[in-house]
Write a structure and sequence with these properties.
Blueprint lengths: L9 H11 L8 H15 L5 H15 L21 H5 L13 H7 L2
Length: 111
């Protein structure tokens, strides 16, 4: 994980997955960063790394054929990007635009 070295309670997570018939999939930090960028560009959601992990997992499931394109899936984005701005900045290739508290400046810089 980008921010966490050891999962909080892996035994509890394994038990819940087994009881529900669910499972796990591993994603890389790079896949998480790609999901952050995808959420921002496609749907306007600024997600922190932990929040974007579910989308990275779903994308990997689709790429490996473990879920079908005709299935419906929901992804819960659990953390806002402002919670971990340093993690989010790893996913973008440019510096943020700084805008003052002037309406005219906002109109000029926001398309």
């Amino acid at each position: 994980s980008i921010a966490v070295g050891v999962p909080r309670d892996q035994i509890k997570a394994l038990k819940a997955a087994r009881e529900s018939g669910g499972g796990f999939i591993a994603v890389t930090d790079e896949e998480i960063l790609e999901a952050i960028s995808l959420l921002a560009r496609r749907v306007g959601i600024l997600a922190e790394p932990a929040g974007a992990t579910a989308l990275a997992g779903l994308k990997k499931l689709a790429e490996t054929g473990r879920c079908r394109s005709d299935e419906t899936a929901a992804v819960m984005v659990t953390g806002h990007g402002l919670k971990d701005i340093e993690g989010v900045m790893q996913a973008v290739d440019r510096a943020p635009v700084v805008i003052g508290n002037d309406l005219e400046e906002v109109k000029q810089k926001v398309p």
